Amino acid sequence: MFISADSIHLRWIAFQAGFFSIQPEAPRPKQWDKVNSHQKRLPVKHPTKGVSSDLPGVQSQMGDEACIRWPAFFPAPLLALGARIFPGFRRLAAVFLMVALALSVPAQQSLDGYIEQGLSNNLVLRERVLSLAQAQSLLQDAKSLFLPSLNLSSSYTSGQGGRYFNFPVGDIVNPVYTALNQLMESNAFQQIENSQSYLNPRNLYDVHVRTSMPLVNTDLIYNRRMQEEQVSMKEYEADIFRRDLVRDIKSAYFNYLSSLEAVEIYANAADLLEESVRVNQSLRENGKALPANVIRAENELRSMESQISAAQNQVNKAAQYFNFLLNRPLDSPIDTGYAISAGIEHAQRESAFAETGAREELKLMESSVNMSNYAVRMREWAFAPKIHAFVDLGSQAEDWVVDDLSRYYLFGLSLDVPVFHGGRNSRALDRARLDLDLSRNRLQLMNRQLELSENASRDNLSAAIQQMQSARTQLSSAEAYFRLIDNGYRQGVNTFIEFLDARSQLTSSRLSLNVRILEVLSAHASLERETASFTLPQTALK
Hints:
The protein is an alpha+beta fold. It folds into 4 domains: 10-107, no CATH class; 117-142 and 220-366 and 426-531, Outer membrane efflux proteins (OEP), CATH 1.20.1600.10; 153-159 and 202-216 and 386-417, no CATH class; 166-200, no CATH class. The protein has 11 helices and 9 strands. The chain has helices at residues 76-85, 89-104, 110-121, 123-144, 169-184, 218-285, 291-325, 340-353, 360-380, 424-490, 496-531, and strands at residues 10-16, 19-24, 74-75, 149-157, 164-167, 195-198, 204-216, 386-398, 407-416. The strands form 3 sheets. A 4-stranded antiparallel beta sheet has the order 4-7-8-9, with no helix packed on it. A 3-stranded antiparallel beta sheet has the order 1-2-3. The longest helix has 68 residues, at 218-285. The two termini are 39 Å apart.
């Protein structure tokens, strides 16, 4: 036998009354299982002939706490016979049945799947993730500033004319040459002219590789730390939007289910009115009812059909908004296989015992404080010396000559110490300290605001649960009252006006319970958002 996904939490009823059965805790009402059930009207049992399971709050008069007792798995004679043959038969049967149920009960996947789909497809979230990627790239740049850099440089220069200088080599050497020629009585040493050279080079090339690296620079240290905090802030901003999106998806999904349920409620009310029209027509034909009753019943039916049309329009709007959040075609079908009962039970537990997680808003403000603190430290170290080193390896000569004489290396250190800048550094330090105080003040304010919003969400959920319980009681009374009036009307004891009033109260009570269930689920989604208790799935954007 197949157990629905809503029967996740199972309990033993025990071996009693000659059969062995299992009772799942609080399965959802049947109408929540219908996919696109607003496209057709389903038949419903008349309240005077038995309570229909298609209506909210009618199973055991408790709506989402209703239970379905499954047929017996093992009849009593079989258990008795097995117990006589093998004393541990009952225990073995129990273990076998629990294993079978564990394998047959599918997990609740509809809403979780939609949440993952929304987190994967949302365009705004994709923008946040792209912004995070940019921040990570800037962080890599900040880290790379500590590494050596290599640059290949080359230049070619050639010119003629312009500035020059005279070198009197002839005036210096010619007297010596003349004396030597006289001593040797020869003309071996010729006279030379004075030299004239230009400062502009001719056919000069220079090719070298420069390796440079900062040795001492406090600005680079604090810049890297600030970029790390910037990456963290982008991550927190993305997570904040993820949580907001999860809350919106849940609220939109619950609103869609509630709109579907409203259509079902109006459809069931229309079925009752159709039955009343048929009964009044039959009574009028037999001379036991006034024609005015038939006209009034038909008018009520037309009015209910108008309300069904308005409710159907609300269903369409809710479905389109839900699909919009998931970034998919607006007319995409929506799976309604969600365990309302399990969601209500979870909300009731968390209304008192919800654990507060680490809010990304606080982490974001803490990162902002850290960034301001690093900015202050950077300004405080503004007068620290900055030391850089470089090494050049290359070749330089004229007429493209490359030999041992053209090859060279050059090593150097640079020291930069700011001394006076008109007081700009001091004023920048004062502004950085003011920004730090402002960030700390914002962090304290954020703490108070989040605490206030969390308490308000808890109170809203508790109030919604109380109102839902009150709506259940009212629905139970309205159903009982309608059954009495309907029976009395069929027997001629109550008037048709009393019948319409009882039917109106029944429909209003069902709608009220439907709204209260929606408020509980939405309030629970808001509490999850405020406490950051929902575990965000690790999804990748498509």
